[in-house]
Fold this protein.
Amino acid sequence: MTRAGAITLFTGSPAIIDAMLMRLSTTVCVLAIFSKPSAYANMEYDGNISYGFSDNISNAVSDRDIFEDSFIAANVNIGKLWVPAVGRSLLLSGHLGTENFNDSTGLDRYSYGASLAYIHKLELGAYTPRLSATLRADYRDFDTDMRDGMLYRSSLGLEKRFTPELHAAITLTREKRTADANKPVPYAPYISGNVFNQDNTELAASIDYTLPNQSLLTARYLYRDGEIDASTNPGSAFFGFSRAIAKDYGLCKSCGNYVVYLTRASVQSLMLDWNFVLGRDTSVSASYERRVADANGGVTYTGNVFRVQLNRRF
Amino acid sequence: MKLSISAVVLLLASNIALAGDLHVHFSDSKGNLVPDAVIEIISPRIPVPADWDYMGLMDQVDKEFIDNVVLVVAGSYVNFPNSDDIQHHVYSFSDTKSFELPLYSGDEADPVLFDMPGIAVVGCNIHDWMLGYIYVGSSHLMNKSSDDGIAVLTGLAAGDYTFQVWHERARRRDQFTTFDVTIPATGTATVALTLELGRDRRIRRAPAGSGSSYH
């Protein structure tokens, strides 16, 4: 694998920008780990490890194109929280993550990145609404190099706790995924292979409720408008609605010569999560997510993801 | 009030004691022992001793208030040291005492004066799950039940007393309910009380599962 995020948004060498981001995220992590908590900042550490199953990792439509797989994922977040004034805080975080599929090799990835979040509590206390603005950038390195690239996310959030048990949040996110346009091999010479440069806007609303046994139920609805990539066997009728098509090497060992294409879609997702306390700062959760993507040409993609996740705050 | 006195007075002979003791045994409706239930003698009014230490302490350890319930006499100062290696931001909105100790570490925060009897609910503006109670009594004759569910007052002069009971999870209308008891000249008056407690409605501390993201 090589690491070559092409950032077409910026002038200058993608390699330099990529290196800068890597240096930034590494610096954040190192500083966060080794710096002594100052008089003005608190350290925040958390992580999770999960085992899951997806019944449509190719994000395909036809039965013959759909295949399922299980995966293991892990994430570590290390942050430093500054509170310069009452109700105003700044959280600078470094993020490391990995996701590995059981059968598929092409989607295995690791990622590293950094985020900066400004959180504003309108008043003092646990029940006051909070506004947040977050910028996040991650470099993701996949088994298939053509998927490598940056993921930028900027989001605005509003959350409020209504009672000790009830909490709700709503988040608006703009997302830009960039990849090296030269790496995908176009399906045909006259077709763009630039599948992994994508723009999306998503709106998510979630509600949490703590049951008397301290388990936490979460329901999240997400609407996402923008672009998705999907993999299929060559010659698909869906190509007519595609903006770019490339050969998808390595998506799956036994899948044959897949191709991946880019199409506009609106995605709806409903996620239900049931979280159980294992300790003061440890929990385990089981979640189910149903995704339905309505794409150009009246094509509908569906997927279901089951996940068991161990969460730990340090 | 739904509190019930299931046993009243048990006299234990003693030739030496000059005063009696009060033991109040707390249990909930399921028979579980109830810690942190407060008893305070409200009648007769007994002057606070001249050498009384009008100081209280509520520490912060591992992002929790220690103790969860702190008892002080009105007019006392309470220190809120921070024994964690991170900062806390302690506050209370309570009518009994509204205050704020913006982000601090160690012993940086000035003590807070609690000059009015009542309950001050204390929280941390950074860690929402942190919750503590300052019980401000008008009398120094007060105590709280320990893990064995027993609250003890010793050295009470013989006579008739009225005490009030408070627990954080007792229903609002049950808070500060009063009971009469007769303290013997020697020995112990034992009272057993059953509290009807609501569920523990603290904000959950354990991390939530983020579930899966789109990617």
Remarks:
- Chain B has two domains: 1-46+140-199, 54-138.
- The mean pLDDT of chain B is 89.
- Chain B touches chain A at residues 62, 85-87, 89, 91, 93, 100, 102-103, 105, 123, 125-126, 128, 199, 201-212, 214-215 (CB under 8 Å).
- The two ends of chain B are 55 Å apart (CA to CA).
